[in-house]
Structure formats: C-alpha cells, structure tokens
Amino acid sequence: MELNELPGSELILPGLEDLYQGRNNTIGSLLISIASIRLTAAGLDIPQISLVSEPELALYNYLQIDRDDAYSYYNALLNSLNSFCAAIELKSKYQTCIY
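Now predict its structure.
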C-alpha cells in the first residue's frame, strides 16, 4: 500500500509538499503541523522548521475566512487527519520502511 492510498492522503500529501516549498499556511500543511509528532513517529519526514505554532487555531481562523460552516469543516478535517495518522501508524508497525 502506497501513502496515496491511505485515507486522508488527498489532504496530507499536498500539505507535505507545501511544507517542503515553504508554504505553512495551507489546510494540508496546518493539518500536518497539528499531527507532526504522530506523523514523524510513524516515519514521515516532515520539515520541522516550517511548522506553525498553535496550528489548531491557525487552521480554524483560516477556515472562518471563507466558510460559514467552519466548525463542522474543521472537525471533518481533523477526522480525516486522524484516519491518515491511524493508517500510517498501522502501516509503519508492519513495515520497516514506508518509502
């Protein structure tokens, strides 16, 4: 199973690319910042220098700008993030190398 097959990868993988490009204010990069410890422990290489402090607040504020349903969308994004984290943790448990 490849990383792009994991649930939530459509948000996380572009966010990872954003971080490598120095963009830390996108939905995906903020989600990665929220779960950076879990993702790093599971073997994902995350550029730490680009992470936002208080990413939960930054994400919610970002969503409030354009969405009337910011709270429900925020929760849906966190659920997707949790699904990705759980899947990559399981994947790393049964494989020694993710890539």
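The two ends are 10 Å apart (CA to CA).
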